[in-house]
Each structure stands twice: as C-alpha cells, then as structure tokens.
C-alpha cells in the first residue's frame, strides 16, 4: 500500500499540469531592479494602480485597458493607457509653472538630454528637515557637480509605496532652492517623492528652479537600497508635444 501511494504521488508530480506550472517564470525574474552584475540600478517606480497621485486618497487606480485581447479572439493584445504627465517617476518641464513658457512651447521636448544623462551624485539628506539653505550648506556639494539625487525621509517612510498622498513629504523650501541655484552648478535635481517643493511651500521652489530653463526636475525617484556616491544617471522622458511633464525611465550605472 505504501509503495502504491508513493507511485501515485510521483505520478502527480510528473503530470503535464504540474510540469507546466513549474516552468512558469517567477515574477521576480520579470521585474528586476538590478542589472549588469550589480552595476545598473533601475530607479524608476513601477506604475501601478496603488501608487500615490497628487492629493488623492485612492491612488492611481486603473490606468491601462486591454482594447484588443487574444483571449477574446483578437490576433494580438493591444492596450491603451491614461495617465497624468506627473505620474510616478517623472520630469517637469518649464511650462509646468510658467504660463509664458507653456505658450512658447517649452514642454518636455525642449529639455536638454545632456543634462538628463551623465555623472551624478546620490546624497542622503538629514532626516529631520525639509531641504533648506542650511541643509544645502551641510551637504558640501562641490562646484562642478551637475546632477544630484536627494534621498530623504520619504524613502525611509516608503511614501511612494503608499496609496494615499502624504502632504508631509520632505522636499525643497524656497531658501533651499535659492541657495542651490546661487551656490552650486547643479542642473539636474532629483527627489524621492512626487514634488521637488515641500507641500507648505509648493510653488516658489519650482519658480526658482525653472525660471531660467537651465535646471531640470526629476521627481518620484526610487532610491532605496542604493549606496550614496557617484554614478552615471540616464533619465528619458517621453517625446510628447505640449506636455508640461512626462513619466520617465531612469537608471543609475555604477
């Protein structure tokens, strides 16, 4: 009887259905974040229904629909999606906060790809403060550094993984933005939540950063589990006429 039970169990394990399940790729192999033997880091948040969106309690919600489906008889699968241009990891264009720039066509197509690609510095911001002038001074960022990614308490709190928008996120205050513009060579500012400006000081930092159209803001970066230091950043927006911002795919290369 025992031998018969073992044979039956073996037959179940070797059945076509079981082997089919075993051959399915594991999800973690499809959604990698580190490539190239640990030298390439994907710092883009996955766009998903449960990610936060601006001032929403309910998150992004459904954003993609399968219009043509092979399950329903179509010859292929084809989807449509609808997103804010400031969804997830995204880039702001000057027309986001300046009407005259928007009317003049300074949209994402006008952004300098040289600024969005090249050597970058990842720094840890003191965890007890928004990014003020005093905080900027304390970071001791050298002249000549053109691209800086600021990791803050937002990453520790995993705010980009929470559905409900959190207005207590950490970002730049007006004096911090002004100090950066006047005392550094930074042209790419990267932050780890949906805005580079603190909620209590929302517009003025954007105006300061984008006034001369020389600084590019990359917001909503995924910076957890990465050692601070020097990397090469590559960040590309979609090429869309009239867009005041765009979701982007960003990576760091060691």
Helix content: 10-25%
**Strand order, biggest sheet?**
5-9-8-7-6-10-11
- Percentage of β-strand residues: 15-25%
Alpha plus pi helix count: 8
Low-confidence stretches: 3-10, 12-22
For the biggest sheet, the summary is: 7 strands, mixed, barrel
Structural class: alpha+beta
Q: What would you call the shape? A: globular
Number of strands: 11
Family: Belongs to the Cyclase 1 superfamily.
Signal peptide: 1-22
InterPro entries: KFase/CYL (IPR007325), KFase_sf (IPR037175)
Subcellular location: Secreted, Extracellular space, Extracellular matrix
Describe the structure.
- With 254 residues, this protein is of the alpha+beta class.
- Helix content is 22%, strand content 22%.
- The strands form two sheets. Strands 5-9-8-7-6-10-11 form a seven-stranded mixed beta barrel. Strands 3-4 form a two-stranded antiparallel sheet.
- α7 packs parallel to α8.
- The longest helix has 12 residues, at 2-13.
- It is globular, with a radius of gyration of 23 Å.
Please name the defining characteristics of this protein:
single chain, 254 residues, alpha+beta, 7-stranded mixed barrel, two-stranded antiparallel ribbon, 22% helix, disordered N terminus, secreted, arylformamidase activity, extracellular matrix, KFase_sf, KFase/CYL
